[in-house]
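[09:14] KT: can someone run the structure on this one? pasting the chain below
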Amino acid sequence: MANPFLLSSLLLSSQLVNYSPMFKEGNVVSSVSDVTDTQNDSTLLKEVEQVINQSRDIFLVWLHGMCQNNDAGEQLLPEIIDTDPLSKLKEHIKLIFPTSRVGDVNTLFRSISDEADGVVREIQAKIKEYVKGLLDSACSSWTEQQREKGAELGMQYVPVFLSGFSQGGVVATNIGYNSKSKYGLTIKGVVCIETPLTGVKSFEPSLLDVVRFLHHGGKGLSEIGVSFMSTTGKMFAAEMGVDLSALLKEEDKIQTVIASMQPNAQSIQDCFNFIRKNKDAMDRAHNIPMLLMCGCIKDLTSYWTLQPSDEKAVVALNAALEKFIGGKFNDGVVSLQGQLCRVESVDSLTDFSPTTCLEHMAREKPDYDYVMPNKPSNVELYIAEEDVWHHKARLGAILTNLDGAKMVKPSNQMFDYEASKSRFSKWLYECMSR
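[09:31] RB: done, structure tokens below
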């Protein structure tokens, strides 16, 4: 209950016996060369490119978080598109909400790479259908076979922007990292929203972390009305899911999302290379524009009216959560430094906080080294000034069990704030206008 990622691990351990691979190799158009090897009509290719460029359309993809669906994205993206200045270009934006990751099983039993493959298959199908429609209208004199080939070849020219929340941001980064070498897509921008870009600490197979959490926060849990025994059982069961995930990877070569989102996993290293080093899977500079949207809760105790003894319990719980997540400032699930893809220690920066980060970024000559050392020029950072929760009132159900405690302010998420929508809108508008 203290960490939603652990509850996902619990679900994994309880359903593991019913696992069967859902996505296999193949079915993904792996690269442009695989198609063009059988197509030598360069004139056809040039005409297809011209038709696509004249449309000025782009595709914006929403990738939701773990164990979620597309409801939030289907409401959010139209609102962002209607926000100035992006509203000026709204007729050129096509939305995609992939369904291959919807639900608990689809975001738990498959690795980040497998999830990315499933998403790309859907993107490719949508883009091919779109290009075919353009060619049917603009090139009616072509044969049906020519238009079909043109649609397949044309996928490489259609601009795609990826936006991902939490785990969805890791998937988006993986697609961007492999966009040329594996997928043959033209990724024009990536937005990561509260994404664990340095991995999920609680996904590491270590019972010691659970013991430490219970030692430091257990008393606080009991004092605020949460069963210590129930929480202990759930957390150890969740840890079994982590350990079983490691066993599957070792013995059966099956990699679940738990294994592929651990801090030392290859998919997380790919995130670092893509964002911090500006490198793709071919070790080439990609220069794809990126926007990292970050947020955190500054003071958990400020959300309730608390008695002195209750406040101590909440402070103890927050301190234990800090150790478990791996960051003093977090949104209840992901640390601020994790959202910034910062693996360098911030321990030496005794004043490191969202406030000091914003102060350094707002200087006449912004000091980005304080926030993200050696930040590549294609990466833009946004840190919400207001408190941001990963999930609305995720801890509310726990803390409202306090005697006489009442929630005095809402547990807002990133896009409950107009400033966050405006930042996304402005970034996408600038990318489309280049």
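[09:33] KT: thanks! The domain at 28-200+261-298+337-393+410-434 is CATH 3.40.50 (Rossmann fold).
[09:34] RB: yep, looked fine to me
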